[in-house]
Amino acid sequence: MIPAGDKGKFDLIILGFVLQEVSSATQRQLIIEALWQRLNDDGVMVVVEPGSPKGFRFVHSFREWVIGTKPRDEASIVAPCPHIRECPMARDPQNWCHFSQMTQRYPSKVFPRKANEPDYINEKYSYLAV
């Protein structure tokens, strides 16, 4: 259990590939709010989801929550776009903000995989740092 008070607060909270796995919008909101309460006043919260239209929508909804509920002195968007205006990528459902990173897969001794799967893959993701 995380202790209450300042001892239960963190400088960095990373929520990676979680929101898309939660079926209810209410549950996603509860997770975000609970983690936000555990963030130090000068801490950073990073939300990362798959670089797909669906993943981007979850990241964008977190962005909208920050802009709509948190005053500027409490929360500032750090990356990828540090403005608080409307996100131009969110206007069109055919577009979404995402990035890619070449990563090495685990060896087949660790996680079995098909013989024709490459050792490296271009992993796509969407993120927001606040």
- What's the gyration radius in Å? 17 Å
Shape: globular
Strand order of the largest sheet: 1-2-4-3
Oligomeric description of these chains: single chain
Query: Strand fraction band?
Result: 25-35%
**Major sheet, described briefly?**
4 strands, mixed
Order of helices and strands: EHEHEE
- Give the termini separation: 25 Å
Low-confidence stretches: none
- Helix run count: 2
What is the number of strand segments? Answer: 4
Helix content: 10-25%
Mean pLDDT reading: 90
Q: Which structural class is indicated by helix and strand composition? A: alpha+beta
What does this structure look like?
- The chain is an alpha+beta fold and 130 residues long.
- Helices cover 23% and strands 27% of the residues.
- The protein has two helices and four strands; from the N terminus they run βαβαββ.
- It has helices at 25-37, 53-69; strands spanning 10-16, 39-50, 99-104, 120-129.
- The protein has a four-stranded mixed beta sheet with strand order 1-2-4-3.
- The radius of gyration is 17 Å and the shape is globular.
- 13% of the residues are buried.
- The model has no long low-confidence stretch (mean pLDDT 90).
Short description:
Helix content is 23%, strand content 27%. With 130 residues, the chain is α+β, with helices and mostly antiparallel strands. It has a four-stranded mixed β-sheet with strand order 1-2-4-3.
